[in-house]
Design brief:
With 460 residues, the chain is an alpha+beta fold. It has a single domain, classed as Outer membrane efflux proteins (OEP) (Up-down Bundle), CATH 1.20.1600. Helices cover 62% and strands 13% of the residues. It has nine helices and six strands; from the N terminus they run αααββββαααββααα. Strands 1-4-5-6 form a four-stranded antiparallel sheet, with no helix packed on it. α4 crosses α9, α6 packs antiparallel against α7 and α7 runs antiparallel to α8. The two termini are 15 Å apart.
């Protein structure tokens, strides 16, 4: 199993596996998973390995590590070598006074230089002092933490989406079971009613009405199957699995453990707030880097060059004349006036810091609101599930009584159909309440910061 899901799967499994019992299957069963299809654990493992969005964010971490090395390398010795070959096939000519050569009153053309030239050199530069260099190095190292947080946030969102869709798939599968059970009951009623019609006990309209109900149930089942396939494709998208591949979801059997949720709001683990805080830190380092531009920089340099000249490059009779030069020194750069560029840049950063402060406050308020809503939704859902469970039991009892009365000819078909509709609605409402409770638990896990904490500690 992936190292991440070893620690977080238990909490997610508690959410996805609890509370699926229907009135027709109330007995407690040991927690187990149908291994024919992919479990929630399998889906999360697959997504963490194959989701392109997560892979792209993780590459940002790799690129960030190289950026740190790049900044650090600018403080190491910079060595450059150069070489040059020239062929002066047409040497420059200059007119000189003839008096130089004993021919006064004339000018004599003279060519300067030799045809072939070779040069080679090496230059070394070493930064000795730069305040902005050390600040830039701190900023580059701090940016790696930003990329790590961004990866954590992406994993958190990915796990949340997968669990959410997985819950919806389980609910849809249960809805199909309910409709199929209802369809079986309708088929049995059609057989009974058809026999009663042939004996003259009921009218043909009763048989036709049941057949209409059967067609409607078949249509509902088909619509659910279409929706189920669409949900599977969405799950494949988040998992990074090609839609062409077949994905079968394992059925979670019934069990009733209590999910372990956080006792309160843990803002220190909220990934959105932590990213904003990291941005504030990086902006502060950027501000310091601009201010460091007012300080002078000092560097050392050294160079050595070799030069060779010859009129006949490959002739044994004409040797190449060689010369060499070398030097070293210090270079001091003192900024005096930049046209107020740095001052204006500092003001821009101040504005960014104000914006980040406002964004942090808004994100904090949003998180508190979402946590409060998830907590309230969870509380209400727990009450609603108890009510719907009792209502579902009552609807099933009423349907059984009405069905028996109809078979004995005491109750009309309309009463039976109403009872069947009420049972189906009660079962649907129970599943809806169950889904809302599971989603509220998932939202509570995410908004409280517990999901991010589990993912982060699992990676350590």
């Amino acid at each position: 199993m992936h190292a991440l899901t070893k620690k977080i799967f238990l909490a997610l499994w508690l959410i996805t596996s609890a509370g699926w019992n229907l009135a027709t299957a109330q007995q407690a069963l040991p927690p187990s998973v149908d291994k024919i299809g992919m479990t929630l654990r399998d889906c999360i493992d697959y997504a963490l390995e194959h989701n392109p969005g997560l892979q792209s964010v993780q590459l940002d971490e790799v690129a960030g590590a190289y950026r740190v090395k790049e900044v650090r390398a600018s403080g190491l010795p910079q060595v450059n070598a150069s070489g040059r070959y020239t062929d002066n096939f047409s040497l420059p000519t200059q007119l000189l006074p003839g008096e130089i050569f004993g021919e006064p009153g004339t000018t004599i053309p003279v060519q300067f230089g030799v045809r072939y030239g070779l040069t080679a050199g090496v230059e070394v530069n070493q930064l000795l002092f730069s305040k902005s260099y050390f600040t830039g190095l701190k900023a580059a190292e701090a940016s790696t933490g930003y990329y790590e947080l961004n990866t954590l946030k992406t994993k958190e969102g990915l796990v949340y989406n997968i669990v959410q869709i997985y819950l919806q798939l389980q609910i849809t599968d249960k809805q199909k079971e309910i409709l199929r059970a209802n369809l079986n009951r309708v088929n049995q009623l059609i057989e009974i009613t058809q026999a009663q019609f042939e004996e003259g006990i009921v009218k043909k309209i009763d048989v036709d009405q049941l057949r209409v109900n059967r067609t409607n149930l078949n249509t509902e089942i088909q619509n659910l199957e279409i929706g189920y396939e669409q949900q599977v494709h969405l799950l494949q998208f988040y998992m990074g699995m090609p839609v062409q591949e077949e994905l079968k979801i394992a059925e979670l059997l019934e069990s009733n453990p209590s999910p372990q949720l956080a006792n309160g709001l843990q803002l220190e683990y909220n990934t959105t707030l932590r990213l904003l805080h990291k941005q504030q830190e990086l902006t502060g380092l950027e501000l310091q880097s601009v201010r460091d531009g007012y300080f002078p920089t000092l560097s050392a340099f050294a160079s050595y060059n070799w030069q060779g000249q010859s009129s006949q490059l490959f002739s044994k009779d004409n040797a190449i004349n060689t010369f060499s030069t070398g030097m070293w020194g210090l270079s001091l750069n003192v900024p005096i006036f930049d046209g107020f560029q740095k001052r204006n840049k500092i003001q821009q950063i101040h504005v960014q810091q104000q914006q980040l402060g406002l964004n942090f406050r808004q994100a904090s308020n949003l998180t508190q609101m979402e946590f409060h809503n998830a907590t309230e939704q969870l509380r209400q859902s727990q009450t609603l599930i108890s009510q719907q469970e009792e209502n579902m039991k009552l609807a099933e009892e009423l349907y059984g009584i009405t069905a028996l009365s109809y078979q004995e000819g005491v109750a009309p078909l309309t009463e039976l159909l109403n009872a069947e509709t009420s049972l189906k609605e009660a079962q649907t409402q129970y599943l809806t309440a169950t889904l809302q409770k599971k989603l509220a638990e998932l939202d509570h896990l995410k908004t409280s910061g517990e999901l991010a904490r589990l993912i982060e500690t699992a990676g350590k």
